[in-house]
Amino acid sequence: MNQPLGPALLSCIRQNGKYEFLGLKERSGGMRPTYAFEFQSIARTLSLPWHHIYYAEYLAEKEGRGDREILLWFLMHILYQSGAGHLRTDLSQIGKDLDSWCRLERDFFPGSDEEFSDLIGELAEIRGDLEGTWGEVIGRNPSLFGGVEGVTPFIYQAERQIVYLRNFFKMERKMLISLDRLSEPRGAVAFPENELLEKILNHRLVILSGGPGTGKTTMVTALLRSLILLDRGVKKGRIFLAAPTGRAANRMIESMEGQLKADPMDSVDDKMPRKAYTLHKLLRINRETRGVYYNRERSIPADLVVLDEASMVDARMMSLLFEALAPDTTLLLVGDRDQLPSVDAGAVFGDFVAGAEKLSHKLHKNTLFLTKSWRSSSGIIEASRAVLAGDRSAVERVFHQSDDSLNLEEFPDRNALVDRIIETYGIGKGEISRGASPEDIFGIYERTAVLTPVRRGPFGVESLNRSISRTLNSRDRHFYHGQPLMILSNDYNLSLFNGDRGVIMRDGAEYYALFRDGAGSFRRIPAGKLNSWETAYCQTVHKSQGSEFENVLFLIPEGSERLLTREIVYTGITRAKKGLTLFSSGEVLAGALSRHVVRHSGIREYLGGKNGI
Question: 27 FRET partner, CA 20 to 30 A, in 2, 33, 142, 519?
Answer without folding.
Answer: 142
